[in-house]
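Bumping with the actual sequence this time:
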Amino acid sequence: MITEPYKLVTYEYTTRNKFQIEQGYHPFNSLYIIQSGAFVSESNGVVNEYKSGDIVFFPTDMKFHRHIIEPLVFHFILFERNKSSEFDFELPAGKLEFRDKNRLQSTLITFNRIAAVQRDFNNIQQHLLNDIIYQYYIENQAIPDYANKEFDDTALIAAVNYMRNNISSKLSLNQLADMIGISPSGLIWKFKTQLGTSPINYLLSLRIQLAKQLLSESDLSIQKIADKCGFDNSYYFSSFFKKRIGMSPSVYRDSHRI
């Protein structure tokens, strides 16, 4: 069983006309799910206003100076990292943006249902907290939009096909540019404007996609998978895979075998 990456410390559904602590910090990570109202917060010289519908994150020990400008109704969650979890991802401070509004709304509705019965459901609340964090991670880091984006530029098609056919080889930007007959800067421009990323980052995304497939569908060793995916060694592969996916290759394999 995969350990949830974050542990709930405290949860409260509350109404406030004024914060009890307007200046200071929280000793744990804090999440505000705002139902109605608004507040202003200043941190590191930057002032932001947060309002109804926003989900706001403040990391541990982040200093703030805040005040409510409209009576606030919100879910307030304090949580900490689960040290036994392999998941390695930190939320950015401030308002969290989500693309899949329907999925997020389903999670928030469940939070509201629990608040309405005024009982403690710590395990469910902890699961819902982690679901919000997982959704943010998937939408903003784990699965980039460009991964399956369609395009019809012949130079890009040639470059991507060459990457796929030589994914285990060491490939350089100059090599790719020479192969399709344009300058390195021209190749970078094509990837940035049409795919939203660099050629090298796109290549790394292809390698990670292949690694995930081999981990879940084969019995190859981590070293052999690293070789097939074009990584210099298993240590670098494991480190990069964990940074991109949030768990080590071995944990990913254990959790994705069917």
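The tokens above came from a reply further down the thread. DSSP finds nine helices and seven strands in the chain.
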